[in-house]
Write a structure and sequence with these properties.
The protein is an alpha/beta fold. It has 13 helices and 15 strands.
């Protein structure tokens, strides 16, 4: 199923109904893993988000001053800090692991003339206090179940590992910063030029030289493992991702949907382990993503492992998923003489579309779907 940007404009009521069905399907898929819904405020204190939100900067937030307190508030650009605060503030007595999900809009100032929206609707979920392997596994499995629940096929998980890449850059010494930019841009020539003058062991140079082109399944990971055998941490992280992919495949995930990108640097200062984006061959945008952020809870005064992810609803909507044949009602009842009958049916739990004038009955039946008709 491909993105449907060439479709005719969808009527607002049909789009609203389709989005409601899509989000409900995701909620049900996530709830199957034991996640509980959490309702969160639309604004948050600037000071909290500045230290804890992913990719936070003054340039991409919408902020204002609370006239009662004088404090700076921000329309939330990210849900995760709010969830972390809830876990720390009033959920200390809950047993671990703790699973929470949320939904709503996030807000960022963006280039509107490029077709980007300031407001986006997300559904996300966070797992606290679970083991690393089990938690990472669950993020992929729950995301896959949610996407299948809305009828989407052909998606791919593109995963990186922050611990692996941080170790590479740490071993690179003074060349680390330049290599980070070159590797992230998959600039093979630039990477090789930096390595020519860098002082580091030959095995590390061979590993770094391979990173820009290391994009693929477990065979790519196996190739990197040969270069990384000189360092236990690097070998351990590659083994970890390979085992994670193998376990996902054994649980039914298509191996072609699992891709490792060894040069992924997104969120390098935020994520602490495996992180991923969900992409589709028919779209040039991310459908969602997430990863492990074990250090974030320390900022809230509670040391606790954590991982999470979010799906972007507007992006999913562009694939035409969860479409139907119109608004359904149990009954169409027309004519004043049938008003009492309409109320009787409603009292019995039936949905009733009532029209005093039955002359428009045919018009109603063209727009809506009715199981039964009176009048």
């Amino acid at each position: 199923m491909g993105a449907s940007g060439d479709r005719r404009a969808e009527p607002a009521q049909d789009r609203t109904r389709r989005r409601a069905r899509l989000t409900q399907n995701i909620r049900e898929a996530v709830s199957a893993y034991g996640y509980m819904e959490l309702d969160l405020p639309v604004y948050e204190h600037y000071e909290l988000l500045r230290e804890t939100a992913y990719d936070f900067s003054d340039e991409n937030i919408i902020r204002f001053v609370d006239r009662n307190t004088g404090k700076t508030l921000v329309l939330r650009p990210d849900f995760t800090p709010q969830v972390c605060r809830a876990v720390t503030g009033y959920m200390k007595d809950y047993p671990l692991p703790l699973r929470l999900y949320y939904s709503g809009e996030v807000f960022r100032t963006v280039d509107g003339d490029r077709g980007h929206k300031t407001e986006k609707y997300q559904i996300g979920w966070e797992l606290f206090g679970g083991g690393e392997f089990c938690g990472d596994l669950e993020m992929f499995l729950s995301a896959s179940r949610a996407l299948k629940a809305v009828g989407l096929e052909g998606y791919t998980f593109v995963a990186g590992d922050a611990m692996f890449l941080q170790r590479v850059l740490s071993l690179s010494g003074d060349a680390g910063h330049a290599l980070k930019n070159a590797v992230a841009g998959k600039k093979r020539h630039d990477t090789e030029k930096i390595l020519e003058s860098a002082e580091m062991r030959p095995e590390l140079k061979r590993l770094i030289a391979a990173l820009p082109m290391s994009f693929g399944g477990r065979e790519v990971i196996d190739g990197l493992k040969k270069h990384a055998s000189f360092d236990d941490i690097l070998s351990g992280r590659l083994n970890y991702v390979s085992e994670l992919f193998a376990r996902l495949e054994s649980l039914g995930e298509d191996k072609d949907s699992l891709v490792f990108d060894a040069s992924e640097t997104k969120g390098l200062g935020y994520y602490t382990g495996v992180n991923f984006d969900i992409v589709h061959k028919n779209a040039g945008f991310s459908l969602g993503g997430g990863g492990r952020y074990d250090n974030l809870m320390d900022k809230f005064g509670r040391s606790l492992s954590a991982c999470g992810m979010a799906l972007h609803i507007e992006e999913l909507m562009q694939f035409g998923v969860c479409a139907d044949d119109g608004q359904h009602f149990d009954w169409l009842v027309t004519g004043w003489e049938n008003l009492e009958k309409a109320e009787e049916l409603r009292g019995a739990g039936q949905s009733v579309f009532f029209a005093a004038d039955g002359a428009e009955k045919d018009a109603f039946m063209k727009v809506y779907r009715f199981k039964n008709v009176i009048g």
